[in-house]
Amino acid sequence: MLLPVHWHGCTPSVDFMPVGNPSVPRPVRSIIVRWLLPPDPWIKLNTDGSYDQHTGVASGGGLFRDHLGALLLAFHTSLVVTSSFDAELQTLLHGLHLARRFDAPVWIELDSLEVVRLLLTNRPGPWQVQHTLVRIRTLMAQFRTRVTHIFREGNRPADYMARRGSTSSALHLLTTQTVPRFFMTLVRMDQIGYPSFRYLDSMHSLLCFTVFLV
């Protein structure tokens, strides 16, 4: 039996299972997803990793923005990994190495909830990624960090960089002068608070929004 404690901290979307003709399309609900500005003097690092299990092609990318939402640096790279989870971690590792260029606390934001949860615990993680995870935690200990999850719809600039990484042979850095125009459009949309939408059908009875801070 579900008790109130089971949905503590969640926002109800649909309280009851749908009834009636199962062939009738279920209603679709949406939630607004927005990228949030980091507070001054923090900078925000968004990353995304990609892995195609059929081809083995993997890549990653990300970007740094300041408290005004202005782009500081973007990057993309090809990766040698065995899973999408590994791709997410390897991309974050690249981002943390680059974060040492900035004398500022770093707000890390990813669309992989599994990775976020792992970073906020002392669990060693799967043996295949333990070495990468140790390196990530070592770098995170060198400056103030905050870790949060964002839905994929709010992580579009990082996703764009990750997809471009499949054409890279090595780590590639970009600035406001060298990034593609479409990418800057995505950055600007985040900067002004332009919303994205995440759609859920009525089978999703609860939508949970949790902020993780370190």
Give me a quick take on this structure:
The protein has 214 residues and is α+β, with helices and mostly antiparallel strands. It is 25% helix and 27% strand.
How would you describe the overall organization of this protein?
The longest helix has 16 residues, at 84-99. It is globular, with a radius of gyration of 19 Å. The strands form three sheets. The protein has a six-stranded mixed sheet, with helices on both faces. A two-stranded antiparallel ribbon has the order 1-10. The chain is α+β, with helices and mostly antiparallel strands and 214 residues long. It contains five helices and ten strands, in the order βββββαβααβαβαββ.
Q: What sort of overall outline do the alpha carbons produce when their principal axes are compared? A: globular
Radius of gyration, taken over Cα atoms and rounded to an integer in Å? 19 Å
- Gap from first CA to last CA: 33 Å
Strand order of the largest sheet: 7-6-3-4-5-8
Task: Classify the helix fraction into a percent range.
Answer: 25-40%
What structural class do you assign from the helix and strand content? Answer: alpha+beta
How many helical elements?
Answer: 5
Oligomer: single chain
- Beta-strand content: 25-35%
